[in-house]
């Protein structure tokens, strides 16, 4: 795995933990840290989403190999 793969994996873990907190405790860590729907929190959400798309792409590429 290269640095981009590790970064994507880290962001997916952060996103997963955040969604777990939302589901279990109704606590949004990203919104707490950066402000509810502030520009920075929206960037964090977008980057986590892009990392998920990147991981789907790399997973499908690995499954074909």
Describe what this molecule looks like in 3D.
This protein has one domain. It is an all-alpha fold and 65 residues long. The protein is elongated. It is built from 3 helices and no strands. The model has no long low-confidence stretch (mean pLDDT 94). It is 85% helix and 0% strand. Keywords: Membrane, Transmembrane, Transmembrane helix. It comes from Noviherbaspirillum denitrificans. It holds the Pfam family DUF378.
Return the string of H and E elements: HHH
Number of domains: 1
Mean pLDDT: 94
Structure summary, number of beta strands: 0
Strand fraction equals under 5%
Q: Helix share of residues?
A: over 70%
Helical stretch count? Answer: 3
What is the approximate shape?
elongated
Terminal CA distance: 15 Å
Q: Structural class, please?
A: mainly alpha
Structural Rg: 13 Å
Specify the biggest β-sheet. Answer: none
Organism: Noviherbaspirillum denitrificans
Transmembrane segments: 6-27, 39-57
Protein name: DUF378 domain-containing protein
Keywords: Membrane, Transmembrane, Transmembrane helix
Strand-helix topology:
Blueprint: H1 3-25, H2 29-34, H3 39-64
Helix pairs in contact: 1-3
């Amino acid at each position: 795995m290269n640095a981009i793969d590790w970064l994507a994996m880290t962001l997916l873990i952060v996103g997963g933990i955040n969604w777990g907190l939302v589901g279990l405790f109704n606590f949004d860590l990203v919104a707490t840290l950066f402000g509810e729907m502030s520009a920075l929190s929206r960037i964090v959400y977008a980057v986590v989403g892009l990392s998920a798309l990147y991981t789907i792409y790399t997973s499908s590429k690995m499954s074909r190999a």
